[in-house]
Design goal:
Layout: E1 10-13, H1 16-42, H2 48-71, E2 86-89, H3 98-109, H4 111-117, H5 121-135, H6 140-157, E3 164-174, E4 180-190, E5 195-205, H7 217-228, H8 235-245, E6 249-263, H9 273-281, E7 290-307, E8 312-319, H10 325-329, E9 334-342, H11 343-352, E10 361-365, E11 372-374
Length: 375
């Protein structure tokens, strides 16, 4: 890969080998994250329905990376053809830039039309073989055509993580007084930080009609939540806005997960302790990374009834960190940080023991690359 451009936060992976290494790295990271979610469920951090929702979003992210890997399969080997390189945010992200997902969503909307006009895989393979045998040269343009065919097939299959993943409601249980409890979950791609952000909200429904079947409330709820899913908004602002706009929906627990950044000596710029850790580890390409994520939680402490002239409305009182500090300033009940990294960088981290990392819960990928252990 060419030298990193220190004048910008964005970097195009300008050859196919670099792109393949990048996608392989993320494929391994997401697989390990699924195991971490299982572990956090066993520890009681996630309820089973929450863990299932989070894993669904991770599966979507993996599918998106798979699709992009096909799009850029011959990256850097073909001149004069559209967007040839994947662009990533190399500073405090490590993920593809927001525009990559916007472009992919536009491509997905037209995938069926593209597939109708493109040669099939068997025909493309036959053409490649004939070109290799008769002309004795690498069929680069045919390889590109094949990569685009496979890319549009992946888009047509769906199940991808776009700039917005619309809210879905999962029934949890029936409550006293005819109420129902749902887990609502959705996700967005933060356009400023270039990171996936996942949301879950446990909500009690006192309406007459079940929320997901309510043709009036449910579209309004979906639109409201997506409009409020902005990284700069505090959880308390989102929850109070929802509580105020929907009189028969009562948010009891709102959670936001910032997935990332991912750091790697090969692909990102980093400062501070993580730079020293990755430098000193001198890990091979498959083990040269560390992924961080942050979980913010906001919990309802109690309900209060506001009485008006003709009706009464139930409002939630949310619990904030009683000691102030970071959680209180962010408008959350608590904020927790986690990281996952291979064994070699972890050994350097333990030796250096940076103060800023001591309150971060760590997960370690063992030398086989399969097991994930508590650090």
């Amino acid at each position: 890969m060419s030298e990193l451009d220190l004048t910008t936060d964005h970097k195009a992976l300008d050859d196919d080998i670099a792109a393949r290494r990048y996608f392989a790295k993320f494929a391994g990271i997401i697989d390990r994250l699924v195991a971490v979610v299982d572990r956090l469920q066993r520890d009681g951090v996630f309820a089973p329905a929450e863990a299932e929702a989070i894993q669904d979003h991770l599966t979507r992210i993996a599918a998106t990376f798979d699709a992009l890997s096909l799009k850029y399969l011959v990256s850097g080997r073909l001149d004069g053809v559209g967007q040839k390189h994947l662009t990533i945010d190399l500073h405090e992200s490590g993920f593809p830039i927001f525009q990559e997902l916007v472009t992919m969503a536009n491509d997905a909307a037209q995938a069926a039309a593209h597939l109708e006009t493109m040669p099939g895989p068997d025909e493309l393979k036959d053409r490649m073989i004939r070109q290799i045998l008769s002309e004795r040269r690498v069929p680069t343009r045919l390889q590109y055509a094949m990569s685009q065919r496979l890319y549009y097939e992946a888009l047509a299959r769906g199940g991808l993580f776009f700039a917005q993943v619309h809210p879905r409601a999962v029934w949890m249980r029936d409550l006293a007084g005819g109420r129902r409890e749902y887990l609502v979950h959705w996700a967005v791609y933060d356009s400023q930080r270039n990171l996936p952000v996942l949301y879950t909200m446990r909500v009690e429904d006192s309406g007459r009609k079940a929320l997901p079947l309510d043709e009036t409330r449910w579209p309004a709820v979906q639109a409201h939540l997506l409009a409020q899913s902005v990284g700069g908004l505090k959880l308390i602002t989102i929850a109070r806005g929802f509580d105020g706009d929907f009189e028969d929906l009562h948010p009891k627990h709102l959670r936001r997960i910032h997935l990332g950044p991912m750091y790697s000596q090969a692909f990102t710029l980093q400062t501070g302790p993580i730079r020293e850790i990755l430098e000193e580890a001198r890990a091979p390409s498959g083990e040269d990374w560390a992924l961080f994520w942050t979980i913010e939680d906001l919990e309802a402490e109690r309900s209060e009834v506001e009485k008006g002239w003709f009706s009464s409305v139930e409002r939630q009182v949310f619990r904030l960190d009683p000691h102030g500090g970071a959680a209180g300033e962010s408008g959350a009940t608590r904020t927790r940080q986690f990281m996952i990294l291979p064994e070699r960088p972890y050994q350097v981290l333990v030796e250096k023991d940076p103060v800023s990392f001591r309150r971060i819960r760590k997960f370690v990928v063992d030398r086989t690359g399969r097991a994930v252990l508590d650090g």
